[in-house]
Design goal:
Elements (H helix, E strand, L loop, with lengths): L1 H8 L6 E6 L9 H13 L6 E4 L16 H15 L3 E4 L10 H7 L2 E2 L4 E5 L2 E5 L10 H10 L2 H8 L3 H21 L9 H11 L3 E4 L6 E5 L2 E5 L13 E6 L4 E5 L6
Organism: Undibacterium pigrum
GO molecular function, one term: manganese ion binding
Protein name: UDP-2,3-diacylglucosamine hydrolase
């Protein structure tokens, strides 16, 4: 009888509802980061009901006609494997891979979401975003973002030969790195008023985003904002990680190697 009583008192572990990850910046020049992300897909992602990719999965994306590039195809096939395991994939575009489109969605099985989007976790509404649209203090970037998110600009760019697009993107990356060195950290972070407006407009009290590469949990006025980390396992001080949401409403953060933070 004692054994039965103890068994009845044992609490069931909460179900892993969803995982959130962003800013892996995958590219052939980051082999250790690539392997770490693929391990995450193979070991952790397949155990969740849903996986949310919140932008900048790739360092850059020149168009869906580049899916068959050997490196890109490796990532696409790994994501498809997760989907085929029964995990629902969701995608929000980042500032590096906003040209991902319907062919990528079909190949991976991912659902393309608008930025921002309101989802439900354990009966609670949560706002998710990449985060760059809230960096309103960076006026030069916001102007650039407005331009490249227009359908006309994207159609004209995608009409160019693939090699030409790659050269343009490489030039933009080099220019971006030079500009970032001249900008303060505060300017490249999200704007407090923009965050407050997003909470107010959506009627939510929990937010998850990436982009800033400044992982943190911000709690204020009964509102909680989770900022996802960027990934870089080439650096001696390896970094990366994800957010896990459970059926009991709890949210936990994990490091790139799967250890609880």
């Amino acid at each position: 009888m004692i054994a039965d009583h103890n068994a009845n008192q044992t609490k069931a572990q909460p179900e892993l509802v969803a995982l959130f990850v962003s800013d892996t910046h995958l590219n052939p020049g980051l082999p250790l980061t690539t392997e770490a992300f693929l391990r995450f897909l193979e070991k952790q992602a397949i155990s969740a009901k849903a996986l949310y990719l919140l932008g900048d999965l790739f360092e850059y994306w020149v168009g869906d006609d580049n899916i068959n590039d050997a490196y890109n195809l490796r990532i696409v096939q790994a994501l498809r494997k997760v989907h085929d395991h029964g995990v629902q994939l969701y995608w929000i575009a980042g500032n590096r891979d906003f040209l991902i489109g319907t062919d990528f969605a079909a190949a991976t099985g991912a659902v393309l979401l608008h930025d921002p989007s309101v989802i439900e976790l354990a009966g609670k509404k949560v706002i998710i975003s990449h985060g760059d649209a809230q960096c309103t203090d960076d006026h030069a970037y916001m102007k650039f973002r407005e331009q490249v998110r227009q359908a006309e600009w994207q159609n004209n760019f995608l009409a160019m030969p693939l090699d030409q697009r790659k050269k343009i993107i490489e030039g933009l990356r080099t220019e971006s790195k030079m500009e970032q060195k001249q900008k303060s950290v505060a300017i490249m972070d999200v704007n407090a008023d923009a965050i407050a407006a997003l909470f107010s407009q959506t009627g939510t009290s929990t937010m998850i985003h990436g982009h800033t590469h400044r992982p943190a949990i911000h709690v204020s006025n009964d509102q909680t904002r989770y900022v996802l980390p960027d990934w870089d396992c080439e650096d001696p001080d390896k970094r990366g990680g994800w957010l896990a949401a459970y059926s009991d409403g709890s949210i936990q953060t994990y490091d790139w190697d799967g250890s609880l933070k």
